[in-house]
Structure formats: C-alpha cells, structure tokens
Amino acid sequence: MFFFKKPSPVGLSVADAVQQAASGDLLLIDVREHGEVQSTGKAQGALHIPLMCLRDMADRRHPDFHPLLADAGPIAVYCASGGRSAHAESILRGLGFDPVHNIGGLGHWVQAGGALERD
Prior knowledge:
Strand content: 15-25%
Radius of gyration: 15 Å
Largest sheet: 4 strands, parallel
Helix content: 25-40%
Oligomer: single chain
Shape: globular
Distance between the termini: 58 Å
Structural class: alpha/beta
Protein name: Rhodanese-like domain-containing protein
Number of strands: 6
Number of helices: 5
Order of helices and strands: HEHEEHEHEHE
Pfam family, one: Rhodanese
Strand order of the largest sheet: 3-1-4-5
C-alpha cells in the first residue's frame, strides 16, 4: 500500500517577495536579457544578471563574481514567465545559495504590487 504525502507549501509568495525586497531582507535577481530589461524596466531594486552570465557571476571562485552576492541571504529570481528563473534557481542552489525562490515573471511582480524602475 502506498501513501502519498500531501505536498507542503514551499517557496515564497510574490507578495512576500515584494515586501521583503522593499525592506532589504531579500536579494531580487532579474535573469532576463538586456533588451528585455531595456524595453520593460525591471523590478525596483533588482540586480540584473542575465541567465547566460549567472553561473559565472554567482560562482565565488570566478573572476566575474558579483560582489552583491557575497553576503546574500534569501534570494528571489524572476524572468519573463518563470521558465528561465526556474533554471536560475537551480544554478544558484547548485552553487550553494540557500534559500533561493523562483517567483515567476515580471508580470507576477507587478500584479503583487511591486514597483518597476528603468535605468
């Protein structure tokens, strides 16, 4: 006989990510491409690291390591819809970052009341 455990809620809601990022308790990373950020802006306070650069910029041993990641606590990642950010979450976890949350896409951020900024 098999018993299936009901999945427990895991992760961080987008609304909670908005609040934690605003209070400085969460590092928010946008993993979209440069052109996407230029055309739509990014979540207010987000660090922009395109997915194709993330492995190098998040690896403490790499010369391109981003200094804001040195003392990062909780991290939330997003992209346009959630696919690339799922991959980014996996990369960051593989490099030893924890906790890391995929909050989906930029639209989810906006729907949860998150502000946007443009460079």
